[in-house]
Specification:
This protein is of the alpha/beta class. The chain has 2 domains: 152 residues, SPOUT methyltransferase, trefoil knot domain (Alpha/beta knot, 3-Layer(aba) Sandwich); 78 residues, Trp Operon Repressor, Chain A (Orthogonal Bundle). Helix content is 40%, strand content 17%. The protein contains 10 helices and 10 strands. Strand 5, helix 4 and strand 6 form a beta-alpha-beta unit. It starts with a strand and ends with a helix. Its EC number is 2.1.1.228.
């Protein structure tokens, strides 16, 4: 999979992708990342990429042509079809399901805006999807793009030490992840649940499933409401609720 990122601060994207899981995925050839400096495609002595908004108002708006020419150059750099995402607080919320869908695509191009916004004509005609990482406003799209690069990088087969790690993550099956513990088993802050040291793999699986259901019910009840729970899941969740009320 190849990801291209169009930005006024491409060095930020490159540096953030050098470490951890994403860096390992790139070094192993599981993920290809290229960044593009939008300003390289601006004209004039000052290579301006923004101008005052029509109708007045604060801030500056990124112009169409530098963005479009940068996008065209990125498209031409690889023959595979590219799906273009624009980082925007007005976009659809990012989700694990959407990340899984994008991870099956051969190429993604992420466009990072700055200033007050981007000329709407570019968004309407050159972008396939707008995506938001939350209901708040950042100074630019670079942080959002870095989030997407990281989340996609860890989904590449071979990027993680254990492929089960990604499949057990929160949201993979619509639930939050269960609690995790490590040594020491006894500590002044508490003890590890006995079942986890029992060696009974079936009991451990049931406990983890129940904890995932219960944690989701406590912290994200909206997710529980969207799921079609099996009879066993309902039994486990009812038992969790009963214990929580004691």
């Amino acid at each position: 999979m190849r990801i291209d990122v169009l930005s006024l601060f491409p060095e930020f994207i490159g540096q953030s992708a050098e470490i951890g899981v994403v860096g390992r995925a790139i070094r192993r050839g599981l993920l290809s990342l290229r960044t593009w400096q939008i300003r390289d495609f601006a004209s004039g002595v000052h290579r301006s990429v923004d101008d005052r908004p029509y109708g007045g108002g604060p801030g500056m708006v990124m112009m169409i042509d530098p963005l479009r020419q940068c996008l065209e150059a990125a498209r031409a750099d690889d023959s595979r079809p590219a799906h273009v995402l624009f980082m925007s607080p007005q976009g659809r919320p990012l989700s694990q399901k959407r990340l899984r869908e994008w991870s099956l695509m051969p190429r993604l191009i992420l466009v990072c805006g700055r200033y007050e916004g981007v000329d709407e004509r570019f968004v309407e005609h050159c972008v396939d999807e707008q995506v938001s990482i939350g209901d708040y406003v950042l100074s630019g799209g670079e942080l959002a793009a870095a989030v997407i690069v990281d989340a996609l990088g860890r989904l590449r087969d071979g990027a993680l030490g254990d492929p089960e790690s990604a499949r057990q993550d929160s949201f993979e099956d619509g639930l939050l992840d269960c609690p995790h513990y490590t040594r020491p088993p006894q500590h002044e802050l508490g003890a590890v649940p006995e079942v986890l040291g029992s060696g009974d793999h079936a009991a451990i699986a049931r406990w983890r499933r129940q904890q995932a259901l219960g944690r989701t019910w406590l912290l994200r009840p909206d997710l529980i409401q969207r799921l079609q729970l099996s009879r066993e899941d309902r039994r486990l969740l009812d038992a969790f609720r009963e214990a929580a009320r004691r």
